[in-house]
Amino acid sequence: MSVCKNIKSFSRRHEHIADFFSLLAVVLLFGTVWATISYHQAILEWLRQNALIHSAALVAALVLDVFLILGLLAVGSARFGDEDERCFGTFRGRRNYNRSPVHWFSVWIKHMENVGRKHR
Questions:
Q1: How distant, in Å, are the alpha carbons of 17, 43, 45 from that of 37?
Q2: What per-residue confidence (pLDDT) applies to 118?
Q3: How far apart are the C-alpha atoms of 47 and 98, rounded to whole Å?
Q4: pTM of the predicted structure, to 2 decimals
Q5: What is the predicted pLDDT for the residue at 89?
Q6: Is the distance from CB of 18 to CB of 76 less than 8 angstroms?
Q7: Rounded distance, CA 94 to CA 104, Å?
Q8: Could you tell me the CA-to-CA distances from 65 to 1, 21, 39, 56 in Å, in that order?
């Protein structure tokens, strides 16, 4: 059984834990915004000390923060969807590289509209 199916089955059996993961994602998002606003002066001073290394560390921390938020949201929302739904599908634009990037964008927009319709 794949990791995706394990997460789906776990979050469907324990919906309160899935709700907790969604809540953690929201808390992490607003906590990040709060920390950025509260400590922006200290962060800027820290960046001035060694711009190259500290900028890389800051970008890495922000990327990790975004992945954590998206991961927590994914675990929290895994209980929605059909049983026979594929776990890791890509939209058509990524599988069809012989067209222009404008075509990829329009296919991605259609894919996002379809995902939005499915989860309402």
A1: 30, 10, 14
A2: 58
A3: 43
A4: 0.62
A5: 54
A6: yes
A7: 7
A8: 28, 14, 16, 14
Please state the length of the chain.
Answer: 120
CA 84 to chain centroid: 23
pLDDT tens digits for the chain (120 residues)? 566 677 777 767 777 887 888 899 999 999 999 999 999 999 999 999 999 999 999 999 999 999 999 888 877 776 555 566 666 554 454 555 566 667 777 777 777 777 666 555
Q: Identify the CA nearest to 27 among candidates 72, 80, 75, 78.
A: 72
Per-residue three-class SS string for the chain: CCHHHHHHHHHHHCHHHHHHHHHHHHHHHHHHHHHHHHCHHHHHHHHHHCHHHHHHHHHHHHHHHHHHHHHHHHHHHCCCCCCCCCCCCCCHHHHCCCCCHHHHHHHHHHHHHHHHHHCC
